[in-house]
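Side project, low priority. Logging it here so it doesn't get lost.
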Amino acid sequence: MPFRDSIPMLLGAHCSIAGGFENAPKEGKSYGCEAIQIFSRSPRMLRKTKPIAPEEAERFWDAMKAAGIRGVAAHANYLINLSAAKARMLDVARTAFVQELDRAQILGIPYVIFHPGAHMGKGEARALRRISESLDFCISKASAPTVTALLENTAGQGSSVGYTWEQIREIIEASGFGDRLGVCVDTCHALAAGYDFLSPDRYEAFMKQIDAVLGLRRVRAFHLNDSKQGIGSRVDRHEHIGKGAIGKEPFRLFVNDARFADVPGLLETPDEYKRNLKILKSLRVP
């Protein structure tokens, strides 16, 4: 595995925008973040939200510069299901995702990370087609030419799709906007879906598989989460770094991989962000 020379993966965490977008970088600085992830709106409500004013975006980037934070991604609302079976819910999901892209554009955020969708009993093949159609609709509708939508691999819990690299490839290849799509690799989800990267040899095989199916160039972000459950559990339950089924050492391989220099590596397990970030930074090769 090629180790980094001088530019490491940008390590950070999900931060709150409560009280204003500018507060997220301030919170990130308190944790020691080099990159942050935010929600640009409530993550659990799909109702229309007020537009972002230009001065809000300006304050956000002033705060980013003051905090010395170099990377940022937005995470889409959890309720968006781009493969929704019912026409009304699909329309709601698509409208919300267009807003996610537009809001990221206004804020100057390059990536919107999203969960591909769930088939809700209608079958995986149909869901994958519907997600591609939805992405084409949303990207063409949005005014977000510099935003890349990142499909996050899932654990395969319930009826979620996108738990194999092949499924993600199918979504991307069926879209007319493949050049506007990338991938966020979630370590917890990958383990739960059955991927083994727990030793150096298996880590390299894991990366070769992603490269063969998707191309590593599509990997634009990581969610660095340990897992409460083991390989193939199909259970999406994050754990603090070193306290779960992944353990501490495999994360050393991620944070030192030169192929992902300057790529955000983001924590999503709250309450111990400062501790978890300290552990990840301690794993860097000097």
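Brief comment: The longest helix spans residues 87-107.
Revisit when time allows.
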